[in-house]
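User: Okay, second chain of the day. Same drill as before: sequence in, structure tokens out.
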Amino acid sequence: MSTRPVPEGLAERLAEAAGEELAALVDAHLAQLEAEQARIVLRNPFVTSRIIGLLATVPRLAASREIRREAVAHPATPRVLALEWVGSLYWPDLARIGRAVQFWRVRDPPGVVAARAGLKAVLTVVGAHDCPFKKKFSTAAAVIWPIVTQSLA
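Assistant: Same drill. Structure tokens below.
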């Protein structure tokens, strides 16, 4: 981890940067970026797959569940990275990703497709077997199942 402090106003610059300026800012401050600043980068409309790949190379950022969740749901995330990270998400994260896609007007990112398929598999296994947590899970499954099956159809 770098000992250099993060420049003041970096979060605002990351949020407002476009194209090459965003890439240059991430390149220059990659070692100092905190999770919240990385989330700002992921929300920037000009973020590219190269920038998301760079964020994934920082172990402290890659360990953040919020970063993994937002990267998996992002359409610019490289397919291999999205498929690698989707397995580490909790089922509420998978449900959030699968549900959020209904409001998007873009092609489904690969992580979202994998999240829906993974969630469908979990719900199918829990529904078919007598699990100790089935009663607690059934309420959530009743809400999530129609969303997942509708979006997979």
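The chain has a mean pLDDT of 77.

User: Thanks, on to the next one.
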